[in-house]
Amino acid sequence: MVDDGSVEFPAPTKAAASRMEVLLDYLDYFRATIIEKVQSLPTRDVHASRLPSGWTPAGLLHHLTFVERRWLEWGFEDPQLPNPWGDRQDGHWHVSGDRSLAEIVAALRERGAASREIALRHDLADTGQPGDRWGDAEPATLERVLLHLMQEYARHAGHLDIVSELAGGAVGE
Question: C-alpha distances in angstroms, 15 versus 10, 29, 70, 112, 165?
């Protein structure tokens, strides 16, 4: 049941028009990889946890949707964004068990497209809008935010590899 939204690995030798293109291509790649891994899982494991923390693969996808929303939409374009922490309940990631994998994947892909559009409206040196997103710190540059998002995706892809291996799903790139 894998929806082949594959994205080619942005190899270091692949020509790119700009650093922005490189960063966005890596984010697209990591997002697609994580989606493919979750889609490779047996259906029973999508909303189930194999870890003491209780996070689920569906919850991870939902979390990443909100991560991108917080860092880019809230940070750069809408400092008054409502419910930026909508992926959390009682201090933990949460996604309703009645949301289908297809709905969760569609939301993450839509968010990815919106994130790309937001990034392309800015320069890598642009800083975010002052507001609650940044707490007491100065707003970060877009380049730093995109690098942070890559770190977030790469780290969670590794987490998902372990869960996927336990469930008999896809691992690695």
Answer: 9, 16, 30, 22, 34
124 secondary structure, DSSP code: T
Cβ(82)–Cβ(89) below 8 Å: no
**Closest alpha carbon to 133 in 121, 122, 148:** 148
> Would you state the structure tokens that stand for residue 162, as one six-digit string?
């372990």
User: Residue 137 carries which DSSP code?
Assistant: S
Output the six-digit token pair for 146: 């995109």
Q: Cα–Cα–Cα angle for 54, 35, 105, nearest 5°?
A: 85
Over the chain (173 residues), the average pLDDT of each successive run of 10 is 66 86 95 94 91 90 96 93 89 88 97 97 96 93 97 93 84 73
| CA–CA dist 160, 77 (Å, integer) | 30
Identify which of 21, 26, 126, 29 has the alpha carbon closest to the alpha carbon of residue 72.
126
Domains and CATH numbers, the chain: 19-167 (1.20.120.450)
